[in-house]
Write a structure and sequence with these properties.
Elements lengths: L12 E5 L2 E4 L4 H10 L3 E4 L3 E5 L9 E3 L3 H11 L6 E4 L5 H16 L3 E4 L11 H19 L4 E2 L3 H8 L10 H14 L3 E10 L2 E8 L4 E6 L10 H14 L4 H20 L13 H7 L9 E3 L1
Parallel strand pairs: 1-3, 1-6, 2-4, 6-7, 7-8, 8-9
Antiparallel strand pairs: 4-5, 9-10, 10-11, 11-12
Bound molecules: 3-hydroxy-5-(hydroxymethyl)-2-methylisonicotinaldehyde.
The site of 3-hydroxy-5-(hydroxymethyl)-2-methylisonicotinaldehyde has 15 residues, from α7.
Length: 301
Amino acid sequence: MDRFHEIKNIIPKVCAVHDISGFGKVSLTEVIPILSAMGIEVCALPTAVLSTHTYEFEDFTFCDLTDEMPKIIEHWNKIGLKFNAIYSGYMGSPRQIEILRDFMLDAKKDGALLVVDPVMGDNALVSGAVYSDKLKGILGNMRELCGIADVITPNVTEACLLIGEEYSDKPINNSTIKNYLKRLSEICAGDVVITSVMDSENSMCVAVYDSADKKCYKVDCGFVNRPFHGTGDVYTSVLTGSILKGNNIIESANIAAGFVYKAIQNTIRHPEIRIREGVLFEPVLSTYFNKTEYDKRYIEI
Ligand code: PXL
């Protein structure tokens, strides 16, 4: 999967296709600072502008940018922009996914890495009215988008939606994890990373299918008995940056899990921070990416 290093930019350029939610730390307000701190340039292709994200907020504003997207892409084509990667997250409408698919297929011909986070919901609750109303339309398109990706990063809810499995909040054993990974790898030809997997009553992990060696892994995320919001976008931002820096999928999944763990530890020290405000990842940015070695948190399953 080295083709994306051949695209000649002074530093890697990632096109981030996400919404911008003004408050609450998800999507672009996480993707941009994290990838910048990793030494990667972010070009933003916003899908929507919201006042806040949609989890635990009511009456948020929502401005759909579907009609802007082709215009932005056309301008970029005109000035000859080439991306080392395209990383997509929250999409506001099924039509946006079609626009994104064509954009990704073009970039793939040039060798771009395609990372798709099929953002659709969490904890079985397809969170927020924005999600639930549009889910039906989005799911089919999202599945198709996963089909062209090099890496997909669904959480367990999204993994179940994609493979047509009933979601359960009970812990999942290794053979079920492997079964989900295998079925997702039939949808996506590349690597599969399932986030927020509860693998026992008191531990969480990330499950990884490495398409190069056809092996399954579990990356330990520790356990915290309090939910956190916005960690999926933090995780996939670090994962994408790490792959672009030359690490393989399991090393990258490991580095990303360590980053989220540290951000959560910071957040726990401040119980006054509400779930909907997201995690305190900012203090971790200045030190975490300078390290040459990271604790190994993964095992093969
Ligand atoms: O990736 C999470 C996310 C992104 N964008 C919006 C959201 C959420 C999760 O709640 O509401 C608007």
